[in-house]
Known about the structure:
It is a single chain. The chain has helices at about 5-15, 20-30, 35-55, 75-80, 85-100, 105-120, 275-300, 540-550; strands at about 130-140, 150, 155-165, 170-185, 190-200, 210, 215-230, 230-245, 250-255, 260, 310, 320-325, 335-340, 340-345, 350-355, 365-370, 375-385, 390-395, 405-410, 415-420, 425-430, 435-440, 440-445, 460-470, 475-480, 480-485, 495-505, 525-530. The protein is of the alpha+beta class. The strands form four sheets. Strands 1, 2, 3, 4, 5, 6, 7, 8, 9 and 10 form a ten-stranded mixed sheet that branches. Strands 11, 14, 15, 17, 24, 25, 26 and 28 form an eight-stranded antiparallel sheet that branches. A hairpin with a 4-residue loop joins strand 19 (about 405-410) and strand 20. The radius of gyration is 29 Å and the shape is flat.
Amino acid sequence: MDSNVRELIFRAVDQTISPEDFERLQTEIERSPDVRAEYLRAINLCQSLGEIASEPTRESFVDTVAPRPHKERWYSKSGWLLATAAMLFVVSSVAFWLGLQKGIESPQERVAERVADDVIEARLAGHATLRRVVDVKWSEGAVRRLEGDVLPKGAIAFDEGVAEIDLFCGATLIFEGPAELEIESDWSVRVTRGRMRATVPPAARGFVVKASESEIVDLGTEFALEVGTQGARVEVIDGEVKLRGGTHDGKHLRTGETQSLGGGVNRDRVSSGLSTSSEIGQRQQLAETQRFDQWKVTSNKLRSDPRMIAYFPIAESQEGRVVRNASRRGKSLDGLLVGPVERTSGRFGPQSAGLEFDRPGARVRTRLDGTFDAFTFTCWVRIDSLEHRYNALFMSDGYETGEPHWQIRDDGRLMFSVMVDDTQDVRFYNRRDQRVVKDAGKHRVYYTDPFWDISKSGQWFHLAAVYSPAERSVNQYINGDLVASDEITDEFLVSPLRIGAAEIGNWGQPFRSTQWFAVRNLNGTIDELAFFGTPLTANEINSLYQQGKPLGY
């Protein structure tokens, strides 16, 4: 390949290419297979290095301003790292230009789309979803699952209770404990112990349950299975199944027929006493009601805690645009729903409530005046996705000296910060954006390790942040466990602390000078926020989690 053309490619990466040379490069890419091949090779390398360069760090946002590196030639490794973002921009620009010129999808367009998909498309391993569990006691050593979990290939075992599983093919299985099974694929499950009811719609016809020496092949049916130490039995409740393998290979069973698949003969109906899906729903509702009532008792005791700044027990909130502050400070600290905040099912089912903030304008406004020696923030949150760089939990309006910000970053890290000095002009080199940016003032952000990814979408988490200047510590908790502990150094020590006007679930920055605001609404649901003016202990945080956790956690 002409070395001048190669030089054009990497001058484009460095963003030093002239408009005339950029047009020349576009022409060469369109005309020459060799140039296209070189271009695609550069894209692939760029993608790999971009992933390395953008790895998040646990360092403070207040970093030393790093000098911009000088330009390197195309074969320099450091040049590649620094040019990652530029190359991705060039890829999409050239692909778009070629598409306009030719009126058809070009190879470059396809590559750009593939690169974008590789970067943003999340992938999960799984064949089924755990829809519901009631009174389940997981077997010793077994993986503990929560409602809504995607179930990968592998074993599931529990000693008591009922579990309802939806296979991705469309089949629904209800297991009564004790039960042991193995999910093999979207279309196949092996049962080694327990009682099961299978409901298989037409779209899932051909679904297979393996037990004993046989395979039960569905032909559009509902059937029951019992597997014990003496063998297995199958009963067709409605429809038809075919047995494959073993001594009954090729036999068909129809409505009302039962077949032993090994061991002694038992004349009782296999389906006798097996729960239906509607019965599981009724049992779950009753259990959630009991759990909700238990929580109300502990919540009522919590309201009288003199250390509490404000308390929003959203789970029991009623309709209307006000979220009541239940602490002793009274309704002057009530929260006001602003914009498209929706009340939705809470962590105790439809009878309880949560506040959903899935649209950019959604927020709850409150004002917590006064000064404080320390902060303890706790809440329950259900995260559907982390679609913004920063996703707000609780944010003071102006982020002025002594005021807190509590957020979740898009990589699943919990982050807490307090402004130390809002008058300082702080500029730092942002490794993620690879540029020097101006910060809001002098502060430090305290991070946890990532606790959330897309596989945990819809799960409830109890989050807590304890900021204690007197103890020089910032402790963060998830589900009652301490997950991060940091020292407050002299440089970042600030006291007293304050909150003032603030928002739950978003950050509108009402004092901004333009109409533009950062989009930080939480795509999820918040419940039971509590704010204390003193540092709670690890035991107290764990107690709040244990007393407030939903059914099945």
